[in-house]
Every structure is written in structure tokens, then in C-alpha cells.
What we know:
Blueprint: E1 5-10, E2 13-20, E3 23-27, E4 29-32, H1 45-52, E5 57-60, H2 61-66, H3 68-83, E6 89-92, H4 95-101, H5 108-117, E7 122-124, H6 136-156, E8 160-165, H7 171-184, E9 187-190, H8 194-198, H9 202-212, E10 221-224, H10 233-238, E11 243-246, H11 248-254, E12 257-260, E13 263-266, H12 278-282, H13 285-288, H14 293-321, H15 324-331, H16 336-346, H17 349-352, E14 363-364, H18 374-389, E15 394-396, E16 421-426, E17 429-432, E18 444-445, H19 460-473, H20 476-497, H21 499-505, E19 510-513, E20 520-524, E21 530-534, E22 540-542, H22 544-553, E23 560-563, H23 568-572, E24 577-578, E25 582-585, E26 594-598, E27 604-610, H24 614-619, E28 624-631, H25 635-643
Parallel strand pairs: 4-11, 5-6, 7-8, 8-9, 9-10, 10-11, 14-18, 15-16, 23-26
Antiparallel strand pairs: 1-2, 2-3, 12-13, 16-17, 19-20, 20-21, 21-22, 23-25, 24-28, 26-27, 27-28
Helix pairs in contact: 5-6, 6-7, 7-9, 9-16, 11-14, 14-15, 20-21
Amino acid sequence: MGNFEVLERDGLARLGRFDTPHGPIETPALLPVVHPDPERQPVPPLEMRRRLGVRAVITSSYIIWRTPPLRAVAEAEGVHGLLRFDGPVMTDSGAFQQHAYGSVEVGPEEIIAFQGRIGSDIATVLDIFTEPETPHDAAAEALASTLERARHARSARDGLLAVPVQGGAHADLRARSAASASALGDVLAVGGVVPLMEQYRFPELVREIAAARPFLGSGSAVHLFGTGHPMTFALAALFGVDLFDSSAYHKFARRGSLLFPEGTVPIDDLRDAVCHCFLCGEMPLTEVARRPAEERERRIAFHNLLASVEEVGRVRRAIREGTLWELAERRATAHPAMRAGLEEARRHPEVFWPTEPESRRAFRETGPDSRERPVVVRFRARVREYAARRAGPWRPLSRIPLRPEYLARVPASDRSGVEIAWETPTPLGPVPLELTELYPIGPYLGIEEFSNPPRHRPPSAIAEDAARELADNFDLARDWADDWTRRQVRSLLDWQYGPEVAAGMAPSLVGERSRRTGRLRTLEDRAGTVLFHVGTDSVARPNYRGAERLVGHLEATRHRLVVADDAVPFVRGGRSLFARFVVHADPSLVPGMSALLVDRSDALLGVGRLVLAPHEMAQMSRGVAARVTAHAGSPETAEADETARPPADP
Length: 650
Ligand code: GUN
Ligand code: ZN
């Protein structure tokens, strides 16, 4: 289900969009919880939009239903008329009130019909709120009812439907709930977590989300009920949460608490100006603290909402830049409980692996924990596999600095005899020298780089001595460079495509280095035809001619996306490949990788860079699955392949 489209992504997190009758929602988005009674709104929705840029809100259809004057307005003018807001409005169903107050008078069918009558853009099924403490039997029974109601709601409603994901603390139930919701819902709303959120039980929260995550369909937006505190947004987004709903901005305001992404500050504790946003320009918080109760609450709520909106903006920027893990790590310092939550997230690396990209532009440590990010764990495991299959004796060479161009410093005596596989000490442990430009090692910016003296760099005196000695009796280009290049070419192909492809292709390839930086830049055949461009991330990406050679070496389906007949002419002409036209995708591919695009008879159409993970392509009806980077159809492209150069090395 769902019409969700991914535009950009960082791991599970996505910049996406989906359409509603009142316009698109761009995600991640904050849906502030708005009370349906205008008298009880500290910030009216229209003001949220005008002054804070809020595009969509959520309100309670149940409160409207049970309050006759509100209901009369909503039935006459719709929920948009009641809220005086013409953007997307999602409505909740009353499940939370049922949980909080013991019962609701409304039936599940009636509340769905009511949400339809008042013109809700996204209606929510009346689910059964399951506590984290609920035993398995009772949670399973409640889930069965929730699903029954969801099926009913789906058949009764044409418009967008949010299906809650319940199951309490039981991983099997969360998984089942997520899978069933995905078949029915346009929005998958992970629920039953407010107590965990309120009591700062973030590791449990993470366990519940991690259990559901692999079963949440990619074609629907994911909502997390009660993600109110801005310090939690980055962590939630890490798990691919697209919609945050916040009543926290108002709840905390009632208690006089200011929300910041770095934590909570009681307004009465303020003695100094801590904030210089436009609201504080109008009236500093120290002054707000002294205003009459009603005004004080209203101004704090506005401030809290601003802090939340700004944090969503930072999350969006981090996704675009590929730095969301970094942001989540920084936010984890807001509270030890947040840190415990992130630690729990690291215990589920397999949840992240299918969507962790092949490379990112940057890797910045925020602390030793950064070395346990799922992408690092995956890299280390792949290095171990690679090392295990590499022939020749291995031994660490402790004095080689990170950059292969410093290889000149290897003493001549070590270069003789059988092939030696050099290992370089790196912040992530020993890594074969030829892999040290790959993400996350290549762009790795660690604390050690700046400590004195850095541990993984040679003490400069030794390095200089070695360099002087080498300069005297060793010519890098003559004695070593060709060997080294041959080995690096083979290693990169081995890393990307496995040892058979490396053995088959490498002997016919020539690596060309940038004169300026010494990095590999292209792989060419002996006639000088460029077949691969090597990015600054050291990944060799085939052009069309390269793909033609590669396809014969890679057994059927490997590294391929099979394109549906309807889309073949478009892909051949260089247009993006849309998810709904992918017939099959090699499940070992991850976002950012270059795949061979073939038709059903395995004829090559082009090369595409993955935006989506293979399992997402199967689930999504909208959006680009891969951007075509080289294709057969156009002579210009063939020409461009010969002249194109990757962006200049930094
Ligand atoms: N609001 C907060 N938690 C929940 C939940 O689990 N279900 C619904 N429908 N609304 C909620
Ligand atoms: Zn401020």
C-alpha cells in the first residue's frame, strides 16, 4: 500500500513525499498535535504554518466526535473548517484516550466513517493500545482485534489510512503487526510506545521499533506516535520514521519546560538568555517566565514547537548530507537514557545493513562508539572475509601511514619475494592497504588524527628518515608503482565483485592514476579505452563499455536489475529506472552501488546507480529505483564515456 516516494536517503532514513487531498507531505515531517477546540490551542494551526512553516497537523477525531459543539462544526465545515487550516490533516482515532481513560464510547467502524465524513486526509484505525508490560497472550489477542478492525477500515475507506502497529514488547507480534499493517496502510503508525517515551525507556523503545522495522513496507510513510521531544527525532529517523507527532510541545509547556534538541530546561531555572531565535527576540525567555500563566504557557508552547521544527530541519539536512548517524550520536548526549537507546540501536546492525549505502562523503567520529556504527561492523566483517580469501602470508606493517602513496616508505627488503599483503593500522583496526581509500576508512575523520602523537601515523622522525633513505636508493615509479597498481586494480574488483571476476578481468585492465594525487582514476583496457571510473571513494564504477565486459564475468542475476519490457526503451535512452519497472534485483546490492541494467533476456541496457535497496524496489509503486549513469541508446553517451572524467580529486 501507499504512495510514498523516496527522493533522497541516508540508510533507513529518507527524504520522501506522499500526496494527500490537501497537498503533499514532505518527510520527515513534524505533525504537531492540535486540539480540535480552538480555545485549547496554544498555537493555532494557521499560525504554525505562517510563522513556523508547519505544513501538516494531527488532531483527535474522537475528541471531535464526543464533543457536540465541535462535532457540529466538523460535520458542517469539515475538520479543516474546524481547525481553520487548509493543509493536510491527519486524525487519530481515540485509541490513546481509551488507553488513558479506560474506555471510549465509539465503535471502530463508526469512528472510521466519522473521519471520512469530516474530510480527514489521513484517517486512523481505532487500534487497541498495548502496554509494554502486556503479556504475550493478551497482546496477541489485542493485536488480532486491531488487525480485524484495520481490514474492515481498509474496505470501508478509499482515502489514506493509517494502520497502527502494536504488539507491545513482543518482537514476534511487532513483526506480525508491521507486516499486516503494511498490506493495508498508507501510513504505518508505530504505537503503544508513549509510556516508554514518557519514562525515558529508550532501549525498550528501540527494541520495539527494531522488531517491527524489517517488516514495515517501504511504500508507506512510517509514523511514530508520541515522538514529541526533539532530542528523539534523529534516533527515530535513524529507523526510518518519516512522521513525528508532537503534543510534547504543549504538555511540557504546561509544566513550564523548554524543549531543546540538547534536552529539557525548566524555564524557572533560567537566569540568562539561552536562545536568540526570533521568538526570543520578541520577548526573552527570562521575561516569558514572569508572564501570567496563560500567556506563559502559550509562549513556551510556541517556543517548543519552534525548537521541534528546527530539529526536523536538521534531521532533513543530515539525511541529505549522509550524516544522520553523527547527528543521532550527538543527540544521544542530551540524556544518558538517549545514549542507552542509541547503544541498543547498535545491537541491531542487521536492521540497518540492507539500506546502509556503499559509501558516504564523510565519516566523522563523535566518540569511540562511532566505531560500532552498523556500516563499520559490516565493513570489518567484509574485510575479514576478503583477508581470509587473499593468498599469501599476512602480517601487519605498523609503520605505514594511511595513504597508499606513502608506500614508498616500505623498506626495500620487505618488497622482495612472494606476494605480501600489507595491512595498515587504522582507527578501525588493521585493513589491507589497498582497501584504505574505501568508505568508511577513506573519508574517516577520527579523534586519533588530531591527538598527539597520532597512533596510526608513523612518528614523523621515523617517517622522514625512511623517506630520506628511500629517496636515496628507491625509485617509486620504476620499482614498485606498476606492481602496486596491478594489485590494487585486482583488489578493488575482488572487493566489489568477488575473486572470480577479479581473476577473470584484472589481467586485461590497466589502472591509470591521477598525476596530482596518485589515486587510481580509471581502469582501461590495453587499447586505452576507459571501462571504469574510480571515484574518490575508490569504488570502480563501470561505464557502458565496462558493463559490457563485466556482464560476461558475472553469472546471471548478479549485480543486475532486470527491467520490465515497458521500461526498456526508456532505460536504454538514459532515463531513470522507476521502482515499479524492476522485475528482479540482486538482493546483495545496496543503495549507491552501480548495477547492470538488463532486460528479461539479460541483454545489457545500461548502468544504474541504486537509490533504493532491492527489497524496497519490490514494495514501492512510485519513485526512482536507480539513476541511469550509462546506457546503450545514445551515441553521445558513448562519446561522453570516453571523455568524461570524475570530479577532480580534492
Ligand atoms: N497516540 C499515542 N499512542 C497511540 C497509539 O498507540 N495508537 C493511537 N491510535 N494513537 C496513539
Ligand atoms: Zn528562542
